[in-house]
Write a structure and sequence with these properties.
Layout lengths: L1 E5 L6 H7 L7 E3 L3 E5 L5 H15 L13 E2 L7 H8 L13 E14 L5 E9 L2 E7 L11 E13 L2 E13 L6 E3 L11 E4 L12 E4 L12 E2 L8 E4 L6 H11 L3 E4 L14 H10 L5 E3 H8 L3 H11 L12 H12 L3 H9 L1
Parallel strand pairs: 4-5, 7-9, 10-16, 11-15, 12-13, 12-14, 14-15
Antiparallel strand pairs: 1-3, 2-3, 5-6, 5-8, 6-7, 8-9
Helix pairs in contact: 5-7, 6-7, 7-8
């Protein structure tokens, strides 16, 4: 009998063959693989000898199927640029395995079996922002169909099919998605008794702004507003200075309802570089991932912290896999963030009409 041997990282193949060398003819190999020949009459004894060696060398937990994960990332971060960075790790093999990633709460858009005997799975996954990515699961047909939401472990591959280059994932493991469905808290602002007058902020005529005043906004010049309250209303004000708009109409209503200003001075933003630090879609998903498991989320506080509207937070949560039932419908996260940028460039006439509505 001639045989080849493959092992797991915890099992030394060559040592196992040396342990049974008196039952073998020729043999050789190394830590991870080997080969040998033996007489057929020795097979039963050889089996028992190798079992004895394995029992002495291996712990029970070491013979359970396991996948070593290198990094957990949102599926939205999987792109061609990441693949090219991974190529710098080549050549991959024993001692330098191909990196394996995990993404959680991934939605399977479609799936089908394929192959000559229909042994494999071909899947389409939702990676957020309306984008899709293909995945292959070899010899997984017995698990078909997979649940709609799963935690996935995978390798990243670049495919070239008829001069069309695209990414494809090779699935190596799945786990039931942990359904994180936090309770969303958002208090409604008190009613605005009277809508204030709106003006454009003129930095050359700051002396005309009537005190007491409150200034709100990101990175405003503190030396120009020394005797001015900042950010949160603590009294009734004659003037509200908006260096930037707050993240949403809800936040603006709170400022006006609590501060009761007679005049609002709105700074005209010169360009997109003057905006507060709005996170990109991938950055927002990473931030949301850090919150996973919290039973309650205060939308207004999170929105204020990240300089985005509560509905953008909800769009991110939905893209992460939360259904956010009970909250109004939102667009895709990318579209909501584009609307967020447009909001910061709103003029005072538009804002006054929104408040009246």
């Amino acid at each position: 009998i001639r045989s080849s041997v493959r092992g797991i990282p915890e099992f030394n193949v060559f040592d196992s063959l040396e342990y049974a060398h008196d039952l073998l003819g020729k043999f050789g190999g190394h830590f991870a693989a080997g080969g040998f020949s033996t007489k057929a009459e020795n097979l039963a004894e050889l089996r028992e000898r190798l079992r004895t060696f394995a029992r002495d060398q291996l712990k029970p937990e070491e013979i359970c199927p396991a996948i070593a994960i290198d990094l957990e990332i949102p599926l939205a971060q999987v792109n061609v640029a990441l693949h090219y960075e991974l190529e710098k790790l080549q050549p991959c093999g024993i001692g330098n395995p191909v990196p394996i990633f995990v993404s959680r709460n991934v939605r399977i858009v479609s799936q089908r079996t394929f192959g000559k005997t229909q042994d494999h799975l071909d899947l389409t996954l939702d990676r957020g922002e309306g984008r899709k990515i293909k995945a292959i699961a070899w010899r997984w047909a017995s698990y078909y169909p997979l649940p709609e939401y799963l935690d996935l472990a995978y390798k990243i591959q670049l495919k070239n099919d008829r001069d069309q280059i695209y990414l494809e994932l090779e699935l190596v493991g799945v786990k039931a998605a942990q359904t994180w469905q936090p309770q969303l808290q958002q208090k409604i602002a008190p009613a605005i008794i009277s809508v204030p007058n709106w003006q454009t902020l003129d930095l050359l005529n700051l002396a005309e702004i009537e005190s007491p005043s409150l200034i709100y906004g990101f990175n405003y010049p503190q030396d120009l507003f020394v005797n001015t309250d900042c950010d949160r209303p603590t009294q009734i004000y004659n003037s509200l200075i908006l260096w930037h708009l707050p993240p949403s109409l809800d936040h603006l209503q709170w400022l006006i309802a609590l501060g009761k200003p007679k005049q609002i001075y709105l700074r005209t933003l010169p360009n997109i570089d003057s905006l507060p630090p709005i996170p990109a879609p991938i950055e927002l998903l990473e931030i949301i991932q850090a919150l996973e498991g919290k039973p309650e989320l205060n939308l207004m506080e999170l929105a204020q912290k990240w300089w985005i509207a509560p509905r953008v937070v909800v769009a991110g949560l939905r893209e992460f896999g939360c259904n956010c039932s009970g909250y109004q419908q939102t667009d895709l996260l990318k579209q909501e963030l584009e609307a967020q940028i447009a909001w910061y460039f709103s003029d005072h006439k538009h804002l006054a009409n929104l408040l009246l509505a």
